[in-house]
Specification:
The complex is a heterodimer of chains A (162) and B (66). With 162 residues, chain A is α+β, with helices and mostly antiparallel strands. Chain A has 2 domains: 8-92, 2-Layer Sandwich (Alpha-Beta Plaits), CATH 3.30.70.940; 107-156, SH3 type barrels. Chain A is built from 3 helices and 9 strands. Chain A has helices at residues 23-36, 63-72, 86-89; strands spanning 12-18, 44-47, 54-59, 76-79, 107-110, 119-126, 131-136, 144-148, 152-156. The termini of chain A are far apart. Chain B has 1 helix and 5 strands. Chain B is globular, with a radius of gyration of 12 Å. Chain B has 66 residues and is mostly beta strands. In chain B, strands 2-1-3 form a 3-stranded antiparallel β-sheet, with no helix packed on it. Chain B has one domain: Rubrerythrin, domain 2 (Single Sheet), CATH 2.20.28.90. Classes of the chains: A alpha+beta (162), B mainly beta (66). The A-B interface holds A 6, 8-9, 11, 19, 21-25, 27-28, 30-31, 34-35, 41-49, 58, 60, 75, 86, 90, 92-93, 95, 130 and B 1, 3-4, 36-44, 46-53, 60, 63-64, 66.
Chain lengths: 162, 66
Amino acid sequence: MTMTDTNESENKVYAIKTTAKQERTVADNIEKAVREHSEIRVYAVMVPDELRGYVLVESPDEIARIEQLVEMVPHARVVLHGDTSFGEVQHFLSPKPVVSGIEEGTIVELIAGPFKGEKAVVKRVDTGKEEITVELYESMVPIPITVRGDNVRVIDRRDDEH
Amino acid sequence: MAVRKKQAKVCRICHRVVEGDACVMCGSSNLSEDWAGYLVIIDPRHSDIAKKVGIDTPGRYALKVR
């Protein structure tokens, strides 16, 4: 054991609130600001789509440094108080497929496209392409429609007893 | 602030956000416009995130590519 061992777990993760829909711009600007100001150490910036209005910043520095960074970056608003550990955010790094939780017989509502608002029954799930084939609930003739997994909202699962 | 009209492309192999028609790192032209999640790696040697995702070069990446 040496004293110079760099301990990776010293890194903290901070959440920075941003202007809506400017998350990627903020991430790019943080990178630019960090390059110009070497006193601020930021190792990575993460923008998960699930977390709207926030970017996650990985840094070994204290919160004051990150507050300083926020001042320099347009569209970055404020740092949330308290830091997070890497373990709490690592699930964002391996996004689960959008079709998980959807199986044959699931009743879904289409939330985009020409059939928006229609309810449908899932007939087939293609996990690889993240597509599902559905049949509209109220249609007289069964017409299979293939839509993207993120274009539907699950209403009811067949195996649910209630 | 102008909204980014043209969605940037992402290399399907290394998940790097690409400006041109081919990936600068792996030379592949297997690009996708359908991606989600954004990751900027600044210092891959010290970053736990970079280690977890297996990235060893700084740059802009997508978390998920379809």
